[in-house]
Amino acid sequence: MAITRQRLRQLVGLSEEPITLRAAHLEQRGDYLVEHLTLTIGETEVRGILTRPLEARGRLPAILYGHSHGGAYGIGADELLDGREYLLDPLGPIFARAGYVTLCIDMPVFGKRATVSEGYAAKALLWYGKGLFGQMLCDHAAALTYLAARADVDPSRIGAFGISMGCTLSYWLAAMDERIAAVAHLCCFADLRTMIEQGAHDGHGIYLVVPGLLNEADAGAIGALVAPRPQLICIGEADALTPPLAVERAFAEASAAYAQAPERLRLVSEPGVGHRETRRMREAMLAFFAEHLG
Residue 17 CB: number of other CB atoms within 10 A? Predict the structure, then answer.
């Protein structure tokens, strides 16, 4: 039997944390606006960066942006404005110019929250049968709550996007939270059991360990929970973090859930490409959100 949305929530430990806006500083950068936010999630202060169009009326479509890992713990939400070496260029301005309100927050141990190491935080949680990824997803869900409640956002048109760690944040949260209307993710969708078989799993951070997950589900089953909502998967075929056989197995499992609407699941697979965004991926992603978020 396929895993249910509720069971995945239990395994991850997803909870509804209250989120409050404490402060906001508005900055105009040419033809778009940036909001530097101070949020409180539960009892934790969290930095958020939001981009939006300079001139807009009514409620806009929005993107919940999950930042990547890349071993650069000091970056976090700054990725939205500054980009990363494996992105073509920063996506905050791109999304704003395309008409989206886009929010990224610092995940635990990243950005302004990089006060302890990933191993330090993950090991402490694992002793209690929890995982760092579960904590990240709780915070990401709280950011979604804040985004959906904004007066300038249409809560029925919120998409999720991310590359690498942001990929997993995006499609896992979409699997568990139907408020996400469409999800596009890059460079981290692969069957975990196959990666263990091939010895490729150790390339991923310890943050991704969810105790007991593989006794019940794998990446494909999680991707399947997004159905029938639209989902775009982009991978590089030479990416060590997404070995071809692992991608093939995960995509086959997710595809079964889209049997009644196969056009809502798309795979962009780039031969000879490693762990990075390509022009083809960028064009596919922007077209995907334009089609499904309007």
Answer: 17
What burial class does residue 111 get, using C-beta atoms within 10 Å of its C-beta: 0-12 exposed, 13-18 middle, 19+ buried? Answer: buried
What is the structure's pLDDT at 1?
61
Sequence letter at residue 272: G
Local structure of 183: helix, strand or coil: strand
**What are 8-41's pLDDT values in tens digits?**
999 999 998 999 999 999 999 999 999 999 999 9
Order across the sheet with 32-41: list the strands: 19-29, 32-41, 44-53, 101-105, 60-66, 153-163, 182-186, 231-236, 265-270
Bridge-based pairing of strands 60-66 and 101-105 is parallel
Residue 156, pLDDT above cutoff 80: yes
Between the CA of residue 212 and those of 126, 129, 196, 224, 233, what are the distances in Å? 11, 9, 14, 19, 25
In terms of Cα–Cα distance, which of 122, 269, 260, 245 is closest to 192? Answer: 245
Q: What angle do CA 250, 160, 80 make, to 5 degrees?
A: 115
Are 153 and 213 in contact, with CB atoms under 8 Å apart? no
Q: Which token pair is 4?
A: 């249910």
Q: Can you state the angle between helices 132-149 and 5-12, rounded to 10 degrees?
A: 120
